[in-house]
Request: fold
Amino acid sequence: MELDYLVTVLLSSLSSASILLIATLGLAVVYGLMGVINLAHGEFLMVGAYSALTATQIGIPYPLAIPVAVVTTMLIGAIVELLIIRRLYGRLFDTMLATWGLGMVFNQAAVLLFGTVSPGIGMPQYNFKIGGYSLAAYSIAMILVAAVMLAFVYLLMTKTVYGMKARASIQEPKMAQAIGIDSSRVNTLTFAIGCGLAGFAGAILLPIIPATPSMGLFFAVKGFLTVVVAGPVALTGSALTALGLGGGASVTASFMTSVVGDVFFFLVTALLLWLYPMGISARWRRKL
Reply:
């Protein structure tokens, strides 16, 4: 088998894994820090994509439309936390049910506002050549975007005052309140950041995946499974899980079919959950 082809498959697989990680990080932050499974995560990703698309349609350059999407989804996320999530902490099933219903509302609102088909913005026409093969440069750039996002979230959660307050509010809530940390305000900001990361994902992936009301469903399912398999060390675990599951499924699809790739993803997910019911990171010492 040609070396050029193998390198092409490897880069394509890393790109697919990176796209999965980009779409999952917001869910990992909310679940890892707050213990909340946001089943409307895919719809927040969709809101980010439509926000960026609408911004470009009114004349805002695409790079500047990405911050618009982030701010929009953060504001909506903060409102959702204040009105819904705050009343359901410690009630995992109720939170999942509420966010699932919220996702349906967002989905139907998108259908009413934008219809079922939306124009895309087009992918930049640059190709990355490897011998006789070529890959879209924008897709390969997602590897760098995922690395930057991962580093940003890691530094935010471990090297900033907010990150220390957020971890203290979850790990030692009573002690955090005793030393003057406003846990309610920190939780609102954390949920908003998770939604903002979903909005960023929708905006940055818009040239690859056109905005549609159902675009978040694919990422919601695989993102949810990625976070569950990752376990309590949400950030590091999600990165490794996305690389293994997303990259493995892409390699399988390259040599066989996309259906077989999806079968690989779900079968390996089931196997890992059987071997590690609490997630692959359950026995790790530090939560990152």
